[in-house]
Amino acid sequence: MHDIEYAQQFIVPKEECVALSMHQFKPYMISSWTDGYLRFFDLGSSKLLGRCQIHSGIEDKDPKGASAVVDFVVSIKLLPSVNHLFAATQNG
């Protein structure tokens, strides 16, 4: 802490974070992951507040019948009101 920098780590097993946005005035962060979910974090308490899937995505089935989301949010912007956000997916 000699450089007065604070770091936190948020881990979602088997997923990759593709976008994140911080709130302008409050300690909130929203992130998008390759599983198609947006996750909301409170940086003050280091807790996951919740998750949602705002885009149903396109599913791709492999030969074993398992499906995977192939479209996910790649850009997020939280509005200062905290009640709204803008999001864009990789497929538009």
List strands and helices in order, with pairings.
Elements: E1 17-22, E2 28-33, E3 38-42, E4 47-52, E5 59-61, E6 67-69, E7 73-78, E8 85-89
Antiparallel strand pairs: 1-2, 2-3, 3-4, 5-6, 7-8
Protein model, in words:
The protein has strands at 17-22, 28-33, 38-42, 47-52, 59-61, 67-69, 73-78, 85-89. The chain has one domain (17-89). The radius of gyration is 15 Å and the shape is globular. Helix content is 0%, strand content 43%. The relative contact order is 0.22. By secondary structure, the chain is mainly β.
Structural class: mainly beta
- Computed Rg: 15 Å
Order of helices and strands: EEEEEEEE
Order of strands in the sheet with the most strands?
1-2-3-4
Task: Assign a percent range to the helix content.
Answer: under 10%
Overall strand count: 8
For the biggest sheet, the summary is: 4 strands, antiparallel
Strand content: 35-45%
Question: Low-confidence runs (pLDDT<50, min 5 residues)?
Answer: none
What overall form do the CA principal axes indicate? globular
Please report the number of helical segments: 0
| Whole-number mean pLDDT | 78
What is the count of structural domains?
A: 1
Question: Gap between N and C termini, in Å?
Answer: 42 Å
